[in-house]
Specification:
Helix content: 25-40%
Number of helices: 9
Radius of gyration: 38 Å
Shape: elongated
Largest sheet: 4 strands, mixed
Bound molecules: zinc ion
CATH class of one domain: Mainly Beta
CATH superfamily of one domain: Urease metallochaperone UreE, N-terminal domain
Length: 372
């Protein structure tokens, strides 16, 4: 058996509209979820009171209820046939009941429904150029940013139009019942707050531009075009809002000798015929600085030397790529008489005749190896 709406609100049948409203306000405050966290019974009462008020505050529904009782709303089209109201419906009613004075101040977090809105400041975007060395190892950059911050001495007050919610709820009666629409508050533009005292150097939102140095940690392995977000280093928001983000767009600079491919790096090494024949040691560029490598006598052109872990640090933090050194033997294009005679003499020498062994893999096999 459903409880009588008048009993729920603790009023008599002859109560006036003002008395009904007053009674509901009392119950709503008494059983408000913010005051009774986790109390299921209070929530139940809170919902019942809201449902009773929904009916008794509406002349048409009240007349039907007075005549037929709960039976008036059974079946299709009736109010609360089986379920009653959900919390959002109830809170949306509050604008009517409590007016601006109560809406924002009295209750903090309206269930899932909003409460005091915290506006977020706008994002700032800056571009940062990184050398390959910085990309490979990660780097901490100090970046100068011009941010909007609240001027000193500025004060804000809660917007009375929306009660600090930043949104106004409009309820219209339609053929389908009461429809609720939310719109951005036009008085405060959605911020929920209005400027109170504003220093003369501040803009309309009470903000001034300030240059700040922001330290940004960029991990190794980033790629050109990537964006990093630094939370809270964008523009401040007015009042009790939260600052926006700083978006750091990564731009990578080409390296003179190293080419990137994923996390691997490639380096073209040129050696003379003499060096290839006699063996040598060479200093090559790596992202950690110069690295000396040894070439065995008789090294073949096209040989790829793999320096493990000397590539780019993986962005997910697991290990690093390799540095692949491609050996190119430089064939002299001009020779003097003496040199020419030497090479002519060597033409049919068995040491000069190509005789690749299995270990001298073909170019295609090497490429296959590299990507496996
Ligand atoms: Zn407002």
């Amino acid at each position: 058996m459903k409880e009588d709406y008048y009993d729920i609100l603790g009023i008599s049948k002859g109560a006036t509209a003002a008395e009904i409203k007053k009674a509901y306000r009392k119950k709503a405050v008494q059983y408000h979820p913010d005051k009774n966290p986790g109390d299921a019974k209070a929530e139940e009462m809170f919902k019942k009171a809201a449902e009773a008020y929904e009916v008794l505050s509406d002349d048409n529904k009240k007349a039907r209820y007075d005549q037929y009782g709960h039976a008036a709303f059974d079946g299709a089209g009736g109010f609360g046939g089986g379920g009653g109201m959900n919390m959002d419906d109830i809170f949306s009613q509050f604008g009517d009941i409590f007016g601006g004075a109560f809406g924002g101040g009295g209750f903090s977090g309206f269930g899932g429904g909003g409460g005091q809105r915290r506006v977020k400041g706008s994002s700032l975007k800056i571009r940062v150029s990184l050398t390959l060395e910085e990309v490979a190892n990660g780097v901490e950059k100090k970046i100068k940013v011009k941010r909007k911050v609240q001027a000193s001495g500025v004060t804000y007050k809660t917007c009375s139009t929306c009660g600090g919610r930043g949104q106004v709820t409009k309820i219209t009666n339609t053929i389908l019942g009461r429809m609720q629409t939310a719109a951005t508050c036009s008085s405060c533009g959605g911020a929920g707050q209005l400027i109170d005292k504003r220093p003369h150097d501040a803009d309309a939102q009470g903000m001034v531009v300030k240059e700040e140095t922001v330290s940004v940690k960029i991990p190794g392995g980033v790629e050109d075009g990537m964006q990093l977000k630094v939370s809270g280093k964008g523009n401040d928001a007015p009042g009790n809002g939260v600052p926006g983000d700083l978006i750091v767009a990564i731009e990578t600079l080409e390296h003179e000798t190293l080419k990137r491919e994923g996390d691997n790096l490639h380096y073209d090494l040129y050696v003379s015929i003499s060096e290839a024949v006699l063996g040598t040691s060479k200093e090559i560029d790596a992202v950690t600085g110069k690295v000396r490598i040894k070439l065995e006598p008789g090294i073949q052109s096209g040989k790829i030397l793999r320096l493990r872990g000397k590539g780019i640090n993986s962005i997910n933090g697991y290990g690093a790529g390799d540095l692949l050194v491609h050996v190119n033997v430089w064939t002299p294009k001009t020779l003097n008489k003496e040199q020419k005679e030497f090479f002519e003499k060597m033409q049919d020498n068995e040491n000069f005749i190509p005789s690749p062994e299995k270990s001298d893999k073909s170019f295609f096999e090497k490429v296959k190896d590299m990507f496996s």
